[in-house]
From TrEMBL:
Protein name: Uncharacterized protein
Residues spanning the membrane: 70-91, 103-125, 219-246, 252-274, 286-305, 311-331
Keyword line: Membrane, Transmembrane, Transmembrane helix
Domain of life of the native organism: Bacteria
Length: 358
């Protein structure tokens, strides 16, 4: 005799009147109605949970505004903080040819031009991969880019409701700021471009009990980032004094101080991200070589205080630090992923044992 399946929401045996939903499983009608009567009517009428990003939704101007303002804020703080530190030790004088506004205009303006070019190039590329479609089908989250398609088992996906702009690159082009964000082994994907179905997505995720992530709030980044900046500032201040005493150049003090503060905050933020929100294959986007190159550039920029040889030495040493930090964080993430896989395996074995008992 064939055993009846259990409702994923209440755990009870389902009746013949159960409703099969988009994950391929059958749910009690009463459970669906208790979570969302609108979802029940939507499913009964043959509705489909689909989120679509059309080519007409993508605009380069939105990317320039969303990414450009972050660039300008960072450039403004960097230029004026660096100039202020130079002024404190008497290096920044009125007769100096470079002012903070000159630095801001050069780096900020140049950065905006690069962002604009990048937005235009990416828009052309993305038009070949649109529309992008997100949907559930037979126990999988399906992401389709044009003719290409990716499938993710629902048991390997998590979700949260929150800001989408910094998680899904396409949202920088579409302007979507809030929605449902799915974490998959291949990255983050946002849902909310089809607002008429967004409430049904939310209700269905609650009904199927997909694991929910904590919302990435600044409350996690502020304490860690502040602590990292304090530690980095102290280390940079100490190293700057040592190098200044050895070379007789006081410019090393504010340079190392600023470098230490910035990198301390960056490393702390990386730790929070990898510990709470990184995907299983985060190494594909954040390889140690990339972080090593980024840290090399920052170190070499500071090292120009002492000339080209000092820039090369400082950049190389700083690049090694960045690569080691990224490698360590990825190693920690790999250990967490192994523990998660082992936990899933144990849960699967437990379900199999319980199934045989029934």
């Amino acid at each position: 005799m064939t055993q009846r399946a259990c409702c994923p929401y209440c755990g009870e045996r389902v009746s013949d009147k159960a409703v099969r939903l988009w994950d391929g499983r059958r749910y009690c009608r009463s459970c669906i109605k208790s979570v969302s009567p609108e979802l029940y009517e939507f499913a009964r009428n043959g509705g489909q949970l689909v989120d679509v990003v059309k080519a007409s939704d993508v605009r380069s101007l939105l990317y320039l505004i969303n990414f450009g303002k972050l660039l300008l804020v960072f450039t403004f703080l960097f230029c004026f903080l660096f100039w202020g530190l130079l002024t404190l030790i008497g290096v920044g004088k009125e007769e100096d040819p470079i002012s903070p506004w000159t630095l801001f205009a050069f780096f900020g303006g140049g950065g905006l031009i690069l962002v604009l070019l990048k937005s235009l190039i990416l828009k052309i590329i993305k038009h070949f991969h649109l529309p992008r479609i997100l949907k559930f089908k037979k126990g999988e989250l399906i992401v389709r880019y044009g003719k290409k398609q990716k499938r993710f088992p629902l048991e390997k996906c998590k979700w949260y409701v929150g800001t989408t702009t910094l998680c899904d690159l396409i949202c920088l082009y579409t302007g979507l700021r809030q929605g449902i964000v799915f974490q998959t082994p291949d990255g983050f994907f946002s849902c909310g471009h089809s607002p008429e179905t967004l409430k049904h997505w939310y209700a269905f995720l609650r009904l199927m009990r997909m694991p929910r992530l904590p919302v990435p709030r600044s409350v996690f980044y502020i304490p860690y980032g502040s602590l990292g900046m304090v530690v980095g500032t102290l280390v940079g201040f100490g190293l700057g004094h040592i190098v200044a005493m050895m070379t007789g150049q006081e410019r090393w003090i504010p340079g190392c101080l600023l470098l230490g503060a910035f990198e301390g905050g960056l490393i702390a933020s990386m730790y929070v991200y990898y510990s709470h929100y990184a995907c299983q294959n985060a190494y594909q986007r954040f390889q140690p070589a990339i972080w090593g190159l980024l840290f090399f550039i920052m170190g070499a920029t500071t090292g120009f205080i002492g000339g080209n040889p000092a820039a090369l030495f400082t950049g190389s040493l700083n690049g090694m630090i960045g690569a080691v930090v990224a490698w360590y964080l990825l190693a920690q993430r790999s250990e967490l992923s192994s523990e998660e896989k082992e936990k899933e395996l144990r849960q699967g074995e437990l379900k199999e044992v319980l199934g045989h008992e029934h």
